[in-house]
């Protein structure tokens, strides 16, 4: 969690930070109750996936558990292949059984009946067996275009963690670019920068 820059949001995120910290420090309780997190922000690059991975790494520093990460579109693609490929099926079974599973980008999938069926089977299994799941999504839980049974289970098995509508990816990229430019300009002023010499062929 030291790598997650809460300060980049430029606003009060103390409640979100407390929830995130509690997930790591009190993971035993989350695990006992089968509670995970639903990390939401409609803004791309707001840090949803990064936060989920930081949380998983934070937990693994204290607890020896099996953690799996997969995007929902990738999971559904694997599910289609698994009917023909035994290896893919084994991989999916490991995802189902993971003690901590990160399902990234929920809501990006196309609305189809078979998708609802497959997601329900997975989520119902994890709900019934109190397996901890972290979802990331740019859609609020109550706006998900999924079967009501899926949405109800997600409500029951997750604590909501809403991130600010700011792209920290853009902020970080801007800061990195400015630092790079500053160093380049400084080197040029110091005479340290020399044009590269190369042979030009035609």
UniProtKB/TrEMBL annotation:
Q: Which InterPro entries match?
A: IstB_ATP-bd, P-loop_NTPase
Q: Name one GO biological process term.
A: DNA replication
The UniProt GO MF terms for this protein read: ATP binding
Q: Where is the IstB-like ATP-binding domain?
A: 43-170
Looking up PANTHER family in the UniProt record yields: ATP-BINDING PROTEIN RV3427C IN INSERTION SEQUENCE-RELATED, CHROMOSOMAL REPLICATION INITIATOR PROTEIN DNAA
In Swiss-Prot or TrEMBL terms, this protein is called DNA replication protein
């Amino acid at each position: 969690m030291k790598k997650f820059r809460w300060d980049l949001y430029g606003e009060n995120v103390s409640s979100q930070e407390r929830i995130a910290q509690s997930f790591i420090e009190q993971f035993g309780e989350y695990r006992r109750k089968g509670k995970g997190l639903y990390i939401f922000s409609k803004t791309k690059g707001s840090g949803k996936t990064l936060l989920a991975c930081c949380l998983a790494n934070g937990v693994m520093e204290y607890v020896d558990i099996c953690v799996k990460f997969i995007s929902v579109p990738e999971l559904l693609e694997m599910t289609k292949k698994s009917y023909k490929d035994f290896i893919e099926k084994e991989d999916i079974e490991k995802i189902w059984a993971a003690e901590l599973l990160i399902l990234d980008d929920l809501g990006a999938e196309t609305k189809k009946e078979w998708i609802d069926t497959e997601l329900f089977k997975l989520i119902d299994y994890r709900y019934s067996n109190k397996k901890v799941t972290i979802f990331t999504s740019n859609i609020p839980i109550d706006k998900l275009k999924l079967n009501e049974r899926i949405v109800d289970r997600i409500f029951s098995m997750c604590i909501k963690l809403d991130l600010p509508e700011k792209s920290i990816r853009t902020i970080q990229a801007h800061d990195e670019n400015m630092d790079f430019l500053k160093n380049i300009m400084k080197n040029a002023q110091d005479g340290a920068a020399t044009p590269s010499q190369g042979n030009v062929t035609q």
